[in-house]
């Protein structure tokens, strides 16, 4: 049997209701079955049920199912990387659906940009479970993994990032930097929204000489569930983003804490005096610009809090 050219990996946790759509989208790729494999790493706690669910996909000849007992998305991604038989691995979330040309576009980008291209990320379109709220402006959609930098395939600019639901790696290069950090990324349920596992590994690969390619033709749709379309969820998401960023580069964030505190005071200045307290971080905002400022201030406050409020007045 010939080696597949690319591995498509889905890491899942207790979302058997969403998983079928993701797997089905991979079975509809416009590649020969022999050219790619599908690996599902199931992190769900009920391993007996996991094995039962795996039987539902027994008819997909190029799919392998792995029940993983050690929790955590980063660990699951590392497991998928070790299992991969192909030299390229593309990750997609269990609540996403790949366009038929997704894997072909990923492989094309690696081929076009040569050995220097060690990471390829693509476009992520939202699959709205409910209408987009009026207070949710386009510059906040990154918090729900929407990615669209436009243009044509290229080495990504420093300001351009990619999402974990549509990112691919050269397996050898990923393994050379030790894979994903198990200290970052989601673990078990949605109580903690720790992230940055893909950002961290990309930074390490770039420091090791690799480059990130943005390939807009590599498209997946990603579910934005209704429970994420609330201001309360966004406030949780941005606070955990601050924690994730601080864990990833605590030295730099510690030094910049006074600048982040300035963003808090600027937001407070826009509020009525009675809301210039921690309560101001949680007041519902109808105006999209005020909501953007609110969650930016909450991010800044979290960074300042994590730093111990050192020298916030510049003294």
How would you characterize this protein structure?
This protein is of the alpha/beta class and 315 residues long. It folds into two domains: 223 residues, Alpha-Beta Complex (Spore Coat Polysaccharide Biosynthesis Protein SpsA, Chain A), CATH 3.90.550; 76 residues, no CATH class. It is 37% helix and 19% strand. It contains nine helices and nine strands. Strands 1, 2, 3, 4, 5, 6, 7, 8 and 9 form a nine-stranded mixed beta sheet that branches. Helix 2 links the parallel strand 2 and strand 3. Helix 7 runs antiparallel to helix 8, helix 7 packs parallel to helix 9 and helix 8 crosses helix 9. The longest helix is centred in the last third of the chain and has 20 residues. The termini are far apart.
* Overall pLDDT score: 89
Q: Give the total of beta strands.
A: 9
CATH topology of the largest domain: Spore Coat Polysaccharide Biosynthesis Protein SpsA, Chain A
User: What is the helix tally?
Assistant: 9
Number of domains: 2
Write the layout of secondary structure elements.
Layout lengths: L5 E7 L6 H9 L8 E7 L4 H9 L7 E5 L5 H11 L4 E6 L2 E3 L3 H12 L3 E12 L25 E2 L11 E4 H6 L20 H11 L3 E14 L6 H18 L1 H20 L18 H19 L9
Parallel strand pairs: 1-2, 1-4, 2-3, 6-9
Antiparallel strand pairs: 4-8, 5-9, 6-8, 7-9
Helix pairs in contact: 7-8, 7-9, 8-9
Short description:
Helix 7 runs antiparallel to helix 8 and helix 8 crosses helix 9.
